[in-house]
Amino acid sequence: MVGDMSSDFKLDAVKGHDSEDPEVGSLNGVHTILPERRATTLSDRLFRGSRAGHGEIVSIPNEKRGHGSAKKSGPLLSGTAYCISSCSMILLNKVVLSSYNFNAGVSLMFYQNLISSVIVVLLGFSGVVTLEKLNWKLVRVWIPVNIIFIGMLVSGMYSLKYVNIAMVTILKNVTNILTAIGELYLFRKHQSQKVWTAMFLMIISAISSGITDISFDTLGYAWQISNCILTASYSLTLRRVMDEAKKYTRSGSLNEVSMVLLNNLLSLPFAAFLIIMFDEWEYIISVDVIKLPMFWVIATASGLLGLAISFTSMWFLHQTGPTTYSLVGSLNKIPISLAGLVLFKVPLSLPNLFSILFGLFAGIFFAKAKMS
């Protein structure tokens, strides 16, 4: 999972019926924009259920104060957890693919998805999360989405190997543009003038950033453009398939955790086929890097973080709502990009730095335009 390549990737990636910023990256599963929810508080329950004979409400001040404190800290904690897991996922994948010079992106994806699948299944069996029972009809409906999902992850892996994190972040803005065009033609969803202006600014920033990129790599840019196309296709296809998939579930709905499991579990046989077809298994057997314990620690951590992005994004959404989630996701690109430039000592020119900053703020402007 490539996090924002994650975040934006596996789970960076994808949104449900009202996509605000379809980056999936996250890698691990599904970023689904949910309606704003407010948990029933203790005081709400007391308000409904504990009335005195003359209609007076029995209140417990200490309980209310306690809940008020939790309500204030909830968005902060969930937002911090989401940002940390998202940033860490991208940086760790970059370390595995570039610093360790690991040339088997499909195998890394297979390992990360395997970790996620095992953990989600264990959580389901223990009753921590609710999982839909899988059946052949549901799997058959979901396979087209999963194929695009795999292509999205693989292309993201290889783009991250050849392109620096800041440029990947800017180029991923192209996904928003492709998604908006797809929404216009497939769903007749029209965007406001502000949104189209923001997308125009993102196009300028992507072109100028590529032109001024000192470490320009043609293969890496080709992988990233492919990733943008696949990510947009994934978001658009998911909207259609989700409604169809619900017909084949016992509950009549498909929750986010079940979608995470479907994506990760179904990707395993396809990934295994690609590993054999590309002869990655021969590379894995012979490469020395897999003998390093620290390599496995980092690879495993990236898999765990991919799953963490799935759950922290859901937690953050429930604590706040799609508006805050979208804006924080855009703001989150700034520290990720700057950290990538500093930690990996990317050669940088002043025009390229300006283009990157311009692209980051164009993404923020896009998020604000979508909210209005």
Could you state the order of secondary-structure elements as H and E? EEHHHHHHHHHHHHHH
Overall geometric form: globular
Average pLDDT, rounded to a whole number, is 76
In whole angstroms, the N-to-C terminal distance is 32 Å
Across the major sheet, the strand order is: 1-2
**What's the main sheet like?**
2 strands, parallel
Count of helical segments? 14
Structural Rg: 21 Å
Unreliable parts: 1-65
Return the domain count.
Answer: 1
Given the helix and strand composition, which structural class is it?
mainly alpha
- Report the sheet-strand fraction: under 5%
**Strand elements, count:** 2
Helical proportion, percent range: over 70%
GO cellular component, one term: membrane
Protein name: GDP-mannose transporter GONST2 isoform X2
Subcellular location: Membrane
Pfam family, one: TPT
Kindly describe this structure.
Strands 1-2 form a two-stranded parallel sheet. With 372 residues, it is mainly alpha-helical. The protein has one domain (75-371). It is 71% helix and 2% strand. The chain crosses the membrane at residues 109-129, 141-159, 165-186, 195-215, 221-238, 259-278, 294-317, 324-344, 350-367. InterPro entries: Sugar_P_trans_dom, TPT_transporter. It holds the Pfam family TPT.
Descriptive terms for the model:
single chain; about 375 residues; mainly alpha; two-stranded parallel sheet; 14 helices; about 70% helix; about 0% strand; globular; disordered N terminus
Show the helix and strand layout:
Blueprint: E1 7-10, E2 25-26, H1 42-49, H2 61-99, H3 105-126, H4 136-162, H5 165-171, H6 173-186, H7 193-211, H8 218-246, H9 256-277, H10 280-286, H11 293-319, H12 322-331, H13 333-343, H14 350-371
Parallel strand pairs: 1-2
Helix pairs in contact: 2-4, 2-11, 3-9, 3-11, 4-8, 4-9, 5-13, 5-14, 6-7, 6-8, 7-14, 12-14
